[in-house]
Amino acid sequence: EPVSSPIRIALPLIAALLVAGGIWWVMRGDDPVSGQRVDGVRVLADVSPPDVGRLSDFPSETQLVVADFGRGDCRTAAGRLEGIQRTAPTDLRLVVLQGAALVCAKDGRRALKVFDDLETRVANEGGEARQRHWYRAQAHLLQGEATEAIAALQRAEAEDPRHRSQASALVERVSLATGG
User: Fold this and answer.
1) In CA terms, which of 66, 96, 140, 167 is 20 to 30 Å from 152?
2) How far apart are CA 46 and CA 175, in angstroms?
3) 175 near 32, Cβ under 8 Å?
4) Sign of torsion, CA 66 95 75 163?
């Protein structure tokens, strides 16, 4: 009886694995309605350094943050902002800036944590932080979360005059990217 070579035995097994993998790939889909991650939307995130606005409205240490943004060092800016918040704990704009700095550093996961904490503070303590929706949307895009990004962008359209038109345009781009 002829002896089977290891290659002759392995070929059907490899073919079966490739077919099973192909079937799994097709069946999993990228339906943004189901809350799955959609990798293609990550490139749509605006990761440019945030506009600080009137620097005189912020604690003086914020000048260093602006310098960090100018160098493109958003991770350092986020760390500085975390420290500055200890000196001005009621200033929600600093929290928004920290989240925006994390988006700029492409750390969507940490940015979403900052924005989740901010939402809790706004709900419990009140206050205004309109730009949070725009930057939350960018964090969701970095995470590939198209449905959540669209929801945050729609809130930005309604509540954030600075980013209203950008949010509207980005809703369209995300919808197109997800086939919606």
Assistant:
1) 66
2) 16
3) no
4) negative
Element counts in the chain: helices (H) and strands (E): 8, 0
- pTM score, two decimals? 0.78
Distance (Å, rounded) from C-alpha 125 to C-alpha 121?
5
Instruction: Give the dihedral sign, CA 173/25/136/153.
Output: positive
Contact call for residues 102 and 74 (beta carbons, < 8 A): yes
Query: Hey, how many other C-beta atoms are within 10 angstroms of the C-beta on 30?
Result: 16
Separation between Cα atoms, residue 28 and residue 32, nearest integer Å = 12
State the angle between helix axes of 62-71 and 74-87 in degrees (0 to 180), rounded to the nearest 10. Answer: 170
What tokens appear for 150 in the block? 């669209």
Q: What is the pLDDT of residues 66-83, one digit of tens each?
A: 999 999 999 999 999 999
Do the Cβ atoms of 107 and 138 come closer than 8 Å? no
Burial environment of residue 1 by CB neighbours within 10 A (0 to 12, 13 to 18, 19 or more): exposed
